[in-house]
Amino acid sequence: MSDKAHKVWKEERTLYQYLTPAIKNFEETTKRLLENYTKVLFVRHPFERLVSYYRMMFHFTSFESDDVSGISWHLFNRVRRLFHRPMIPRDRSKNLTQLFPFRDFIQFVIDHAKNTKDGSWKVDGYVDTHWLPISEQCFPCQVRYDIIGKLENFDEDLDQVAKHIGIRQKILYPSSMKRKTYGHVKEAFKTLSPQQITELKRIYSRDFKLFNYEHDE
């Protein structure tokens, strides 16, 4: 095991040990947290989320360390099995966009929405959260969030969070970690069919409405 992989494993093991008591008393812990803690939710344009996740998982081979590339290959093989495609040998020198184009990923997301709804497929909570609608994960209609910010206005909204919890010092988010996907969304969506885009608008309709996003931004 590489040093980086060992570090990731150790951090996840520590996090699991820390969270285990909370998981065992989930309802009690959730109630206490919702009543006593500041609740903040950051959202992102649904289409940008899809492109960002695809690029992170399947395009940036330099980013794909032992942990991330494993997730990429896990998802690719899952799609391959569900779509009855042949086994393909893994080649770490190539990114997966050649084997798994963006339009195929989007078709999987569309099929995933339909088949998990009728029970044909199971939700994989470890991976699927990256594209599932925020409204289905964070329950903005049930949870009274103190602040709902947007990744598109992250610096300004982060200032509001800091003020709300009493932090006077300005929080500077590293430029290297800020969103870089916006300019790639239109190009990626050019590869989709009109039917696929219509289906995506339907799947994320609640997110568009709740968080005041436009389809054609």
UniProtKB/TrEMBL annotation:
Entry EC number(s):
2.8.2.-
Keyword annotations of the record: Carbohydrate metabolism, Glycoprotein, Golgi apparatus, Membrane, Signal-anchor, Transferase, Transmembrane, Transmembrane helix
Q: What is this protein called?
A: Carbohydrate sulfotransferase
* Subcellular location field: Golgi apparatus membrane
Q: Which domain of life is it from?
A: Eukaryota
Q: How does it sit in the membrane?
A: Single-pass type II membrane protein
Instruction: Check the record and name the Pfam families matching this protein.
Output: Sulfotransfer_2
